[in-house]
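Design job #97: recover the sequence.
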């Protein structure tokens, strides 16, 4: 953990505040997410669909994720969030430093809307369209 904190302290950020909070849950987590400008998920593991990503996007928060596993399938860079090369602190710092160049309210709303495709009825409708188009 100390090495990770050291790496973050060496990022060339334009005044952005990065906090490593560890595991949080419940009301404490909700308050932290609500007050955050962006949620960073710097995973280097091939996660399929992390719950932290779903929660943040459903709340309309800006997400910045490693371009790995299922996260790269969900987060469309500059559309409903941002992605960076896994393990690249320079690429991550670049994404953080360039947040002001985007309409973050629009991207947050796109994140919220993209979660609707994961709702059971919407997913069923979309998959049935695919099946019906095949034959």
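Job complete. Output follows.
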């Amino acid at each position: 953990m100390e090495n990770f904190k050291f790496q973050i302290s060496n990022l060339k950020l334009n005044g952005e505040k990065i906090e490593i909070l560890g595991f949080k849950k419940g009301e404490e987590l909700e308050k932290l997410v609500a007050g955050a400008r962006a949620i960073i998920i710097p995973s280097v593991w091939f996660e399929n669909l992390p719950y932290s990503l779903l929660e943040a996007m459903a709340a309309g928060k800006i997400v910045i994720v490693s371009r790995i596993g299922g996260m790269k399938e969900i987060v469309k860079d500059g559309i409903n969030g941002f992605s960076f090369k896994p393990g690249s602190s320079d690429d991550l710092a670049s994404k953080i430093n360039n947040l002001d160049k985007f309409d973050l309210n629009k991207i947050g709303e796109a994140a919220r809307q993209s979660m609707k495709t994961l709702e059971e009825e919407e997913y069923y409708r979309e998959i049935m369209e695919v099946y019906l188009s095949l034959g």
